[in-house]
Amino acid sequence: MPEIPQPDLFTWTRKPPPRRVYTVGELTRAIKRLLEGTFESVWVEGEISRVSRPRSGHLYFSLKDDDAVLPAVLFRGQAKRVRFAPEEGMAVLARGRVNVYEPRGQYQLIVEALEPQGLGALQAAFEQLRERLRKEGLFDAAHKQPLPRLPRCVGVVTSPSGAAIRDFLDVLGRRNPTVSVLVAPARVQGEGAAEEVARQIRVLDRLGTSDVIVVTRGGGSLEDLWAFNEEVVARALFECRTPTVSAVGHEVDTTIADFVADLRAPTPSAAAELVAPERGALVKELERYTVRMHRSVERALQLRRARLGETRRRLGDPRRTLADRRLGLEALRERLEAGTLGPLNRRVRTLAGLRERLRAAHPAERLSRARARLERAAARLASVVRAREHTRRRGLEALRRRLLRAHPGEAIQRERRRLERLETRAIQATLQRSSEARSTLAGLAGKLDALSPLKVLGRGYAVVRTAAG
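The structure assignment produced for this chain is given below.
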């Protein structure tokens, strides 16, 4: 019987399935669908690292822990809503969605919300801004201004419809109704509230009618009071030239404005008590000062009356004393005139003579007289010099004319002029003689013409000749 071969259970294998080959793009898209579909919204905790803030306004960073690193991006729109500034090494909670960037095959977390771990976002932003402004010196006591003792006008930046302004006005009206109030209306919470508060602070400061500016609102949560934690309000309070009071929230509430303002009031009512003293207390204080002043004046008058009486008793009758002194003065004057004025007059006359002699003998006087003589001699010498100079100049002029006449050139010129005159006279004489000769010749020609036979014949005479001539 032929042997039937037994199958080898150890070498038999199952037929493998057909292979599924992915392209890189297909695999990346499959991973993208899987990850983005699975992690559409997820909270991730980690430590911020490699923070980058390009000019686009987006925020690029990484979340890391001891095991891994996750790239993350916070786009500009969401970054504006984050109350604090993400910094290197800060532990945070991030909410977002996983995104796969296909061209690079990388995945990252698109962050939609970010908050500090352990602290709220607003509290973290508060602490960051407070520390930065403290380092800049905005909280220093050297910049604080004292409040005026008796303000005439108080400027208030607050909501005109809030409870804070009503409490402030009620307390101020009871304490001192003579103080006027100028309200600068502004929103105290919500979008744009901080900018309105800062603008109204600057408006009141620029007007200059308020002696003190109060920034106030009622209580609320940290988010409700956030407008007074904005840097723009802190800068406006710091730059304000008018003394400022911050009265935001209740006594337990603390804002950045409280640190920057010149004075912090725990409540709006307390602010009214701080800026304006009670009128009744002022009146009582004024009355006390008036009584003290009257008593001081009375004591001073009594003291001066006593001193005046003592002086009067010591002096006696001033008219009798004055008469005695006048008589003694007259006697002294007569003795003085008799004993001193005569010798004094003589000495004065002697001194005048000596002064005249001294003046005449004084070198300056002698020098003055010598200078006068010298000036007169100089004037005479100058006159003589000028006369001699004039005489010499006339002699030189005569010599010059004689020299010119004796000069050959001058003689030649004179002979040339004489020849020119003779030539002119010769020409004139020749012309005259020629004219006279012409006249004589014309007369003779006339006579000759009259005696000419031809002329006789011309008057009708004839000459007859014979054939023989």
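Interim note for the steering committee: The CA atoms of residues 151 and 211 lie 6 Å apart. Residues 126-277 form a domain with the Rossmann fold fold (CATH 3.40.50.261).
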